[in-house]
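The authors assume throughout that readers already know how a fold can be written as discrete tokens. Each protein is reduced to its one-letter sequence and a matching series of backbone shape codes. I therefore recommend that a typical entry be quoted early in the introduction. For illustration, here is how one protein appears when written out as sequence plus structure tokens:
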Amino acid sequence: MGLKYEERYATHPADAKNYDTNRLRDEYLVQNIMEEGNVNLTYSQYDRLIVGGAVPVNETLKLESIDPLKAEYFLERRELGIVNVGGKGTVSVDGEVYELDYKEALYVGKGKKEILFSSENAEAPAHFYMNSAPAHEIFPTVKIGREDAIIIELGEPENSNRRTLNKLIVSDTIKTNQLQMGMTELHPGSVWNTMPAHTHSRRMEAYFYFEVPKGQAICHFMGEPKETRHLWMGNEEAVFSPTWSIHSAAGTSNYTFIWGMGGENLDYGDMDICQPDELR
């Protein structure tokens, strides 16, 4: 029990065209994020984004630095976004305790030294999903409850993509260096997300899928708009999306996903649209 991590490297789109299913999964899919009693982290060379999860049960878990960071503590040169997708829990930031209920978020600024995760009930532990990106300025730690999110209704039932987008850790709600996070909830009967598909060369993105019913699955689409690929995914799994790749999905049921971004542009509307009939 404790801390686990792995590294992922950036790939050229011309190389990705030659990947088989196993290689695609090895490069972009992140599994086993939520393991009881562990902090699991995956460090990507795409904008140095880290995707991770912490599931404290009977003991408090600490977010510690990992070797690729070459840092005394995890947030020495980074910022952190957290969304709780499990039971009630708390995050202690240098001794200040924040309670996070289901689907509540917390932004932690650069320079905080001790990050501790705890669950209120070991029978229903918190599942803390995390994204972290490099930071150069120090911004305050802020909790973002459901009532604090900017909510946008998108899609249409006839296109099977009726969804509620919750902007949580974005430039419209709080100050960050580059990290942006939000949550999109698919309505019952809707399965398609992020249509029309798009790319944004100025920032990468990671998707984390949850609330996927048992026995159901997500088909995540990636790749260049004219050279798409797909990955089948399960509950509480994530995928890295390179700057050159679309990021869209359809599920065999409705579901929820958390999107996180790192890069040079904080404008949510910064994207290059590709209409459905243009995809190949």
Remarks:
- The longest strand covers residues 203-210.
- The longest helix spans residues 21-28.
- The two ends are 44 Å apart (CA to CA).
